[in-house]
Design brief:
Blueprint (H helix, E strand, L loop, with lengths): L1 H13 L33 H13 L9 H16 L3 E9 L2 E10 L3 E11 L9 H20 L6 E8 L7 H8 L3 H6 E7 L10 E4 L3 H13 L4 E4 L6 H5 L5 E5 L18 H20 L1
Parallel strand pairs: 3-4, 3-5, 5-8, 6-7
Antiparallel strand pairs: 1-2, 2-4, 6-8
Helix pairs in contact: 2-3, 2-4, 4-9, 7-9
Bound molecules: zinc ion.
Zinc ion binds next to helix 4.
């Protein structure tokens, strides 16, 4: 009896199929299925459609998705629509920059300890020069695919999961700064970690650049890429929305795949994103988010 239950625990740790060591029902009253569901995996076809949708938005609205444009508004409506269908509690948080109305999109997954929030975000705006499909349709799509995978799995994480798509990052981290500024001291305290993703599908990726700050998240990203034999390089806090959080004393992490050959230009189209890199990145976002929210 003890031998069997030890075997089951070992199998759960190794992620083995519980059926392999199933014992006759009469021999045990304990459930054989591990308590923590296995972390789901997102396929290329579960993330690339989001990028194609953002490219179409830009194509329809004059070539970009910048702050204050129709392209940004339609990007926001598209992402919100996907999240609403997946069962998230979504809300638009308005702010004004350069006399123009902007928005952040916040999506809460119902449940989890509201005193311990894992917040995962990406900026949704592009520059005016182009459609911004790698910068930052890719990060936006990776975070969206992660949220949808959480919903599909019916996840019930220990901590509260919140996802965010920021406006006006390209104008100076405006949306994320506005969000952080409007948090109460207690609200800031509740965010255990903020994970940021700004460019996750760069072609000819050299290294996954990991933001080295919150230790468990940083280690989890490094372990994820190491297990796949992918090179990483540690970077500090700066250059994107995690700076708004880090500056307010909120622990941060995340990663990006580097700037690549086309940045902030009209050529940052769908073919500026490598589907394989985007898929690897999305699964890294999902795996680490899942791990952090589960404990
Ligand atoms: Zn960016």
């Amino acid at each position: 009896m003890e031998i069997f239950s030890r075997m089951r625990r070992t199998a759960a740790v190794l992620g083995l199929c519980a059926a392999l060591i199933a014992v006759p029902a009469a021999a045990s009253a304990e459930p054989v299925v591990p308590k923590t569901p296995r972390i789901p995996v997102v396929s290329t076809e579960q993330v690339m459609p989001y990028l194609r949708a953002l490219q179409s938005v830009a194509d329809r609205t004059g070539g970009n998705r910048a702050h204050g444009t129709k392209g940004f508004q339609q990007s926001l409506a598209y992402v919100k629509g996907v999240l609403d269908k997946a069962g998230f509690r979504t809300g638009l948080r308005p702010f004004t920059h350069n006399g123009v109305l902007g928005h952040n999109l916040i999506a809460d997954w119902p449940g989890g300890d509201p005193g311990h929030v894992v917040l995962v975000g990406a900026h949704l705006d592009s520059v005016e020069a182009g459609p911004g499909v790698n910068d930052n349709g890719s990060g936006s799509a990776a975070v969206l695919a992660t949220a949808v995978a959480v919903s599909r799995a019916g996840a019930a994480p220990k901590r509260h999961l919140r996802f965010a798509w920021w406006g006006a990052e390209e104008q100076g981290l405006i949306g994320s700064k506005d969000y952080v500024r409007k948090l109460s001291a207690a609200g800031r305290e509740k965010i255990d970690v903020y994970l940021n993703f700004d460019m996750t599908g760069t072609r000819n990726v050299q290294q996954w650049l990991v933001v080295h700050d919150e230790p468990r998240a940083t280690e989890a990203f490094e372990a994820y890429f190491a297990a796949k034999g992918l090179p990483t390089f540690d970077i500090g806090i700066g250059g994107s929305d995690h700076e708004s959080f880090g500056g307010a004393g909120i622990p941060v992490s995340g990663f990006n795949t580097g700037v690549g050959e086309c940045l902030h230009e009209a050529c940052d189209r769908i073919d500026n994103v490598d589907p394989e890199t985007e898929t690897v990145s999305t699964n890294a976002v999902l795996s680490v988010t899942w791990q952090l929210a589960s404990r």
